[in-house]
């Protein structure tokens, strides 16, 4: 006797729909703020986005792209950051905040914001079978000095009045107005950008005797609408006819200028003599310091076990350069995996030690020391808090990687050979330009564990240990 199993038709349809949904990729939306994120120059920006629904992004590839510069800002993949894929502009300046990544929420921190960072950023998430993205806008602001108004000269039958300010971003509105609020046309307006990308601006106008003598120079910030104002009042006596006085004034002026010219020249000559003697004294002192440091020279070699997989180290362990191709090396605990750096083979727990590194034609380099307990895996920040004390050449600028802000090093020329001097007991780490025998920078600190020579490079021209 055969027994037939009867399945209700409604149950079969529901089972079919369930299997159909199970075969579809897990879809999600990426949510970011629709309002621009406004950050002041020099501060850190935090750009946040999250998934909807709130699913884990821990196994996804998360990337940030600068839409303006078409460059990768930060990449997270296989549960770790990939700094080697970053644009050079952002290397060492970003951090992915992963506290909420299991709930689909991540934030990108960009350190030390400059005007060039302004623009749109694209946040994207990619799983094994789906991709989505969102765009948010970063605005950069800089509030500069109060407007400074002063009388410059008699010109065009009136008095030339100038208003000047500096250190603004973006370019501020700058308006002349009378006491009744009526705006006045400027005679000329000039603006320049300083090396930080901030605006310096100057505007002027001619005030005549029949004009309203109370004037205000008003500034208004484009984003924040912050306003600054300075007012000047021109006395009637300034407009009186001064021709007889001017004749006497110019005669006295000629005599005074002749006397002042002689006095200035004499003082300038004395100053130059003192300056030359001071420079010679400083130079001699620096030479003596360097010779004392160089007397403690030690041989340093590179530790192959610590070299990042994108570094090629020579057999004699004296040279290293960056490669576009990863080397076939074991992922041992001592090896760095996020930054193209390498340690020296020998560490120091006492004494004085000196070594030199040739960096001629190397476009990106850094050197100094690091503590033995330095983290080797995951994202690494080159700061004293991480246990690293270095100077570097980064995009044409020499810096000491101090914290919280980098220290710009004003050097007359780019060094071709750097000397490093470590005095363990006295907590001194000094750097010298070997060719000019001149001091570059000194860290003062306290060592509590074994210290190793530290090097990084992002250049295909090798860095070379000299002895």
How are the SSEs ordered, and which strands pair?
Elements: H1 9-23, E1 29-32, E2 37-40, E3 45-52, E4 61-66, E5 71-77, E6 80-81, E7 94-97, E8 105-110, E9 119-126, E10 131-141, E11 148-155, E12 158-168, E13 173-178, E14 183-184, E15 188-193, E16 199-207, E17 214-220, E18 227-233, H2 243-294, E19 311-313, E20 319-322, E21 341-343, E22 352-358, E23 365-371, E24 388-394, E25 397-400, E26 407-408, E27 417-423, E28 428-433, E29 438-444, E30 451-457, E31 463-465
Parallel strand pairs: 2-10
Antiparallel strand pairs: 1-3, 3-8, 4-5, 4-9, 5-6, 7-8, 9-10, 11-12, 12-16, 13-14, 13-17, 15-16, 17-18, 19-20, 20-31, 21-30, 22-27, 22-31, 23-24, 23-30, 24-25, 25-26, 27-28, 28-29
Give the CA-CA distance, first to last residue: 96 Å
Strand order of the largest sheet: 19-20-31-22-27-28-29
Number of helices: 2
Largest sheet: 7 strands, antiparallel
Cα Rg: 32 Å
Low-confidence stretches: 1-23, 241-245
Mean pLDDT: 87
Percentage of residues in helical conformation: 10-25%
The shape is flat
Would you tell me the structural class of the helices and strands?
mainly beta
Strands, count: 31
Strand content: 35-45%
């Amino acid at each position: 006797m055969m027994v037939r199993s009867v399945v209700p038709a409604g149950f079969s349809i529901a089972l079919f729909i369930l299997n159909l949904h199970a075969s579809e990729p897990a879809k999600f939306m990426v949510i970011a703020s629709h309002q621009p994120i406004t950050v002041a120059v020099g501060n850190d920006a935090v750009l946040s986005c999250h998934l909807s629904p709130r699913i884990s992004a821990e196994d996804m590839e998360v990337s940030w792209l600068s839409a303006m510069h078409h460059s990768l800002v930060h990449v997270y993949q296989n549960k770790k950051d990939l700094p080697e894929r970053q644009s050079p502009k952002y290397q060492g300046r970003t951090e992915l905040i992963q506290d909420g990544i299991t709930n689909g929420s991540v934030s990108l921190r960009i350190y030390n914001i400059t005007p060039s960072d302004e623009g749109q950023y694209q946040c994207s998430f990619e799983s094994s079978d789906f991709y989505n993205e969102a765009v948010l806008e970063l605005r950069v602001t800089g509030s500069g000095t109060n407007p400074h108004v002063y009388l410059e000269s008699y010109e065009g039958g009136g008095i030339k009045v100038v208003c000047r300010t500096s250190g603004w971003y973006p370019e501020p509105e700058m308006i002349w107005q009378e006491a009744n609020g009526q705006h006045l046309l400027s005679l000329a307006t000039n603006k320049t950008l300083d090396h930080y990308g901030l605006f310096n601006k100057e505007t002027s106008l001619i005030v005549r005797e029949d004009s309203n003598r109370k004037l205000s120079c008003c500034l208004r910030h484009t984003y924040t609408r912050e306003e600054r104002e300075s007012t000047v009042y021109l006395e009637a006596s300034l407009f009186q006819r001064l021709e007889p006085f001017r004749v006497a004034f110019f005669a006295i002026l000629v005599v005074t200028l002749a006397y002042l010219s002689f006095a200035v020249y004499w003082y300038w000559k004395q100053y130059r003599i003192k300056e030359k003697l001071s420079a010679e004294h400083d130079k001699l002192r620096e030479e003596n310091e360097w010779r004392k440091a160089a007397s403690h020279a030690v041989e340093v070699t590179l530790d192959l076990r610590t070299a990042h997989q994108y570094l090629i180290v020579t057999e004699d362990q004296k040279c290293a350069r960056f490669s576009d191709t990863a080397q076939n090396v074991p992922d041992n605990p001592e090896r760095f995996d996020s930054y193209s750096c390498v340690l020296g083979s020998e560490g120091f727990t006492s004494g004085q030690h000196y070594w030199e590194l040739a960096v001629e034609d190397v476009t990106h380099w850094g050197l100094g020391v690091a503590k033995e307990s330095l983290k080797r895996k995951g994202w690494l920040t080159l700061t004293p808090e991480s246990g690293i004390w270095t100077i570097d050449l980064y995009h044409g600028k020499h810096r000491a990687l101090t914290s919280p802000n980098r220290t710009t090093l004003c050097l007359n020329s780019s060094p071709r050979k750097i000397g490093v001097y470590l005095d363990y007991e006295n907590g001194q780490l000094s750097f010298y330009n070997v060719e000019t025998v001149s001091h570059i920078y000194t860290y003062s600190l306290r060592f509590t564990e074994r210290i190793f020579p530290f090097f990084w490079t992002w250049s295909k021209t090798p860095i070379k240990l000299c002895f």
